Amino acid sequence: MPRDASTPAGARAVTAVAPAKINLHLGVGDVRADGYHDLLTVYRAVDLWEQVTVSLDDDEVVVTGPGAPQVPTDRTNLAARAVDLLRGEAGSDARIAIRIHKGVPVAGGMAGGSADAAAALVATDRLLGLGLGRAALEERAARLGSDVPFCIRGGTALGTGRGEKLATLLHARAEQHIVVALADGGLSTPTVFAEFDRLRAERDPADPERGLPRAGGVDPLVAALAGDDPAAVAGLLANDMEVAALSLMPALRRTLRVGREAGALHGMVSGSGPTCLFFCTDRDHAIAVAAEISEHGVAREVRVTRGPVGGAHIVDDPTGK
């Protein structure tokens, strides 16, 4: 809790960043009574970043960068909800402006909104002098969304529950190079989950051979991540949600085919999509695959990134704390 209910003297603005996430494994259980699904996932943070500045100014939310018009600027924005959560805990009536610069694809299955919330929590904690530790911030992050705790933590982690229960995979440090192919348009996560449930319900539970494929366990992947063989890791990647994303946006099939034919070790939809990921042996290989995908015109934009990277952190703090 804060030392007092007022804002610390001299604290005017704090900037933090948080990374995009990808799912190296995403196994989806059946829908629960609360409407969520139990997940078994291996998260990895990659070198695409959301930047959030909070300042003692007014309560406006300003969003800039690619996809900014698609992002809400009212209090439903996840970063605004994060600020409001900590402001309430501080008992502060301070007016806090939020400025977000997008570096993660919007509605692309890479947790851009969750990264905004993670960066906002870290920055607001510093701005208001709450002094919350990483574990306390992750607990509050889980109230905002399933991916938000991981965007605070970063690295590589096993996620269970709704994805919010994390166990860091400390041994999984070998660098991975990935091509990110951005689609025209986005897919909302609830829509993709609804399609996933529809497709799964259409299958005959008495005939498992006809059921949707399931990603299965993660032990082989976790073991492979301890090594330094990109091909071994690529052969174990899985995403249960891919079938639903492809059902809603069939054009992604061509994107995946082009990337695989370009020589990627593995191609898959990122999370709930529609961003596609292509895993490569090294940076030069990734640049070559990216060039081939770009040449075929099957993606709105193509980027080369890497992981793992760290989680949300302060990058500019005029208070000097």
Summary keywords:
321 residues, alpha+beta, Ribosomal Protein S5, domain 2, Alpha-Beta Plaits, eight-stranded mixed β-sheet, four-stranded antiparallel β-sheet, 10 helices, disordered N terminus
Notes on the protein architecture:
This protein is an alpha+beta fold. It has two domains: 13-170, Ribosomal Protein S5, domain 2; 176-307, Alpha-Beta Plaits, CATH 3.30.70.890. The chain contains ten helices and twelve strands. It has helices at residues 78-90, 112-127, 134-144, 148-153, 189-202, 219-225, 230-234, 242-248, 252-261, 283-296; strands at residues 13-31, 37-56, 61-64, 96-101, 156-160, 165-168, 176-182, 238-239, 266-269, 276-280, 301-307, 313-316. Strand 1 and strand 2 (37-56) form a beta hairpin. Helix 1 packs parallel to helix 2 (112-127), helix 2 crosses helix 3 and helix 5 (189-202) crosses helix 8 (242-248). The model is unreliable at 1-10 (pLDDT under 50).
